[in-house]
From TrEMBL:
Positions of the UniProt region annotated as Disordered: 234-260, 281-321, 334-363
Cited Gene3D superfamilies: 2.70.50.70
Domain of life of the organism encoding this protein: Eukaryota
Signal peptide span: 1-21
Native source species: Pseudocercospora eumusae
Protein name: Lytic polysaccharide monooxygenase
PANTHER family: LYTIC POLYSACCHARIDE MONOOXYGENASE, PROTEIN, PUTATIVE (AFU_ORTHOLOGUE AFUA_6G10930)-RELATED
Low complexity bias: start-end ranges: 244-257, 292-303, 334-347, 354-363
Keyword annotations of the record: Signal
Amino acid sequence: MFSTAFFTAAACGLFASGVNAHMVIRNPVPYGADSLTNSPLAADGSDFPCKQRSGVYDVTKMNTIAVGSPQTLSFKGSAVHGGGSCQLSITMDKQPTKSSQWKVIHSIEGGCPANATGNLPENPNGLDAATFNWQMPAGMPNGEYTLAWTWFNKIGNREMYMNCAPITVTGGSNSKDAMQALPDMFQANIGNGCTTVENEDLVFPNPGKFVQEGGSDLGSSLVGNCGAAAAPTGYSGGSGSGSGSSPASSSAAAPTGYNGGGAASSPPGYNGGGNSPVAAPKGGYGGGNGSGAAPSSVAAPSATERPGSGSGPGPGNNMSTTYDIVTVTTMATVTGAGPAPTGSDGSSSGGGSPVSYSGSQLSSGSTGTCTGGSVACDTPGSIICIGAGQFGLCDINNCAVPQALAGDTRCNANVIARRAKYLTHIKRKLKHNVRL
């Protein structure tokens, strides 16, 4: 017969095996790589931020990040817990504390760190999870500070993972305005009264300026008091004093988005680290240029620029919001245009890509005069039908830019009849992206 000690040892071995296969970031190179464990943050948040420990802020390697230059987010491990949703956030603090302010620069809703049913084949040093391309937004301040990767797993215990890395930002601005305009990092499952829900790819309450969607079970369910954790900081309005720097043109460094190991046949630019065909992000930070023609049978999420990213005197109130819908099998995304982003010619390539418009085509102020092909509308924030094959989102200037509907999607009586599940998420996001 087996002894109690044997079963205890066996259980401990299984537990250690699972823990050893959890995920850590491989690139950017994290702080204290030698002391970094792959477990989640403590349930009481005692090791927040950055998994506090001895040597937590030892610089293994300084990561130099040029504004607008493609960067890679990659992982080591195999316990991907069905994927989930991740964010990249930054703080100006070189050694962050609980009082540090974190600002979101990129969100991945679903499929992060891999698009898998459960876990990948166990390997604590495995490199088969997905990789993601991202960019440091234009206008970010130059200097040394800290980047954080946070992850909310889809299946298993309700946890929050967080790894931090030292970064030096170059090619940016001497102003903090662009950074301060970004939303706060979402926090949950660390004793702060907010808990995520299992079996959902979390749709962040305020995902930030650049969002990539790759999940099949998107959901925004939260339990508890999540107001503080999820409250968007939004855009301050007023005249502002922005850096006058716009994002790189859409043709420059368009992210291929989502790459990694996977068993299924995947479209160009994507391997989800799982066993089902999933999306090939279009990339194109705000420009609509695809990174490859994705097959029509799969979704094509994109890293899409949200409001407030253009050049000019700051966020102000001259903000317009566009609303993109793609084909029957693709996800609908919401993008926003701040004051006149440059380098976007509205062109789009790749099957099923949404129609985009440059800043010059958006409404031109609060005078009620709509230019650039936009049409007058009555209620800011509302959707209007422009014929059966087009729609528009009424902006704060009572103008709407015509947007093409793809496939058999139709607009009737100011209602778009397609994929109600995704439209629910869109309406929720519009509340954050349209500042009335």
